[in-house]
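Run log // design_07
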């Protein structure tokens, strides 16, 4: 049996294991979130950020709690995960010894920084007030140019623990390093056990650089066992999550309750959101996409229309049976913590439309449906969920995947004048058929249809990129 969370903690629905439950009802987790530095970057006003998510009905965010950050301007000048030297705050106190690569004194792994845990507590408390679920990701894969800035690097702490080889960070090779990693996880779990709005994730992109899949898998497995041993002595149990990557597969592991994917296609050893739905839905766990190409950033990885591309990614995944979606968003930054920008408002409103579309149905009774639509006259990419014979939801778009920029894939909208005819089989009965414009959730057209349980044709109204379909008994 999959390890679930305690009764009041964000957990897996008892009615449908593909969705979450929280505060007595099933919930979808949808967001467009900052780059995981909300706590480690003291200059970031997280209250204004969380206020903006709540304003748009978005209820999910993700943080790195200190083991991974980057030097100022490493990615973008305004990237939250790249705090200025004086704005960095992590779980460990500073020593009196100078020489940290990111500026200031080295860290003392034997002393905790109480100010960090006060900030973490404040962040989680305010998120709970706003009904925002926080995914705490303990680690990110280290690579050569990031590792010197990690407190576990041998030159970054006065204990000299961790060495200088990034390849060993996510392995069991260095016993002293692993002991410190476990101590770090244990401290975070002890400090955050009281919160109901928390999910624990182990490592982001575990094999993106360096370490072998076998070594990383063994390391993650030991961390999972340690986390469970710690939580078993505490009042509350939380969901454990791990990203799926080529060679790192905890999909069927009952200790891990949440399967994580990133981006839209298999690239850089990423599984991709639709790929995760296709290959891991059978595991009967929630599946989430917790990272996409960064939107509203410089450089801009999206080509053509960013709003349309972002919508396609989120609608395709969630209408395919996903449980949670996070659109990585660079508009939230130190200078603009509430992300006030016309394009960002449109992006956030689009995710709100998606949530409203799914929640307009009894979605907890619906599961992934790849058999009702048998053919499409002009093709396209289709995803769907249904409660057979009662309610159906489908999403169709016309896009193709681009691998030309960086390592992360994304969709390029393929605009046209589309008028698809669908060959479908639905249970015999009388239904209401609605065609929805995903851009604003408006009803394009509505009609009554009658099915005899055999193949029938459904003609879509004209559309330029994507269309959503709702069929209700």
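design_07 sequence
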């Amino acid at each position: 049996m999959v390890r679930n969370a305690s009764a009041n903690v964000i957990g897996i629905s008892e009615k449908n294991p593909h969705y979450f439950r929280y505060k007595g009802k099933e919930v979808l987790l949808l967001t467009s979130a900052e780059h995981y530095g909300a706590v480690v970057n003291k200059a970031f006003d997280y209250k204004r950020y969380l206020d903006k998510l709540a304003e748009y009905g978005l209820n999910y965010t993700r943080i790195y709690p200190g083991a991974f950050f980057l030097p100022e301007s490493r990615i973008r000048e305004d990237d939250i995960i790249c705090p200025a030297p004086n704005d960095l705050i992590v779980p460990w106190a500073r020593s009196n010894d100078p020489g940290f690569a990111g500026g200031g004194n080295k860290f003392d792994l034997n002393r905790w920084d109480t100010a960090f845990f006060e900030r973490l507590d404040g962040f989680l408390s305010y998120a709970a007030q706003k009904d925002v679920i926080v995914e705490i990701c303990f680690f990110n894969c280290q690579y050569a140019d990031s590792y010197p800035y990690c407190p576990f690097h041998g030159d970054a702490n006065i204990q000299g623990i961790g060495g200088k080889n990034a390849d060993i960070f996510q392995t069991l090779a260095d016993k002293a390093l692993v002991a410190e990693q476990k101590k770090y996880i244990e401290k975070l779990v002890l400090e955050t056990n009281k919160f109901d709005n928390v999910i624990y994730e182990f490592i982001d992109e575990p094999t993106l650089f360096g370490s072998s899949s076998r070594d990383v898998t063994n390391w993650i497995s030991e961390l999972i066992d340690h986390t469970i041993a710690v939580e078993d002595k505490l009042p509350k149990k939380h969901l454990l999550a791990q990203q799926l990557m080529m060679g790192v597969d905890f999909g069927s592991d009952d200790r891990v309750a949440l399967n994580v994917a990133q981006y839209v296609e298999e690239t850089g050893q990423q599984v991709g959101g639709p790929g995760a739905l296709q290959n891991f839905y059978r595991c009967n766990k929630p599946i989430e996409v917790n990272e996409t190409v960064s939107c509203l950033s410089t450089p801009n990885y999206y080509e053509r229309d960013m709003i349309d591309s972002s919508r396609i990614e989120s609608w395709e995944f969630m209408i395919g049976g996903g449980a949670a979606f996070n659109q990585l968003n660079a508009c939230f930054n130190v200078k603009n913590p509430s992300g006030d920008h016309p394009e960002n408002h449109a992006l956030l409103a689009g995710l709100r439309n998606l949530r409203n579309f799914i929640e307009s149905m009894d979605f907890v009774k619906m599961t992934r449906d790849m058999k009702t639509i048998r053919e499409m006259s002009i093709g396209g990419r289709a995803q769907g969920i249904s409660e057979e014979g009662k309610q159906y939801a489908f999403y169709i778009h016309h896009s193709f995947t681009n691998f030309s920029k960086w390592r992360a894939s994304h969709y390029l909208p393929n605009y046209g004048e589309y008028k698809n005819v669908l060959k479908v089989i639905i249970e015999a009965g009388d239904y209401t058929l609605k065609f929805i414009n995903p851009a604003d959730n408006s009803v394009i057209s509505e009609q009554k249809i009658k099915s005899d349980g055999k193949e029938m044709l459904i003609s879509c109204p004209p559309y330029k990129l994507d269309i959503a379909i709702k069929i209700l008994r």
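The first strand starts at residue 11 and ends at 12.
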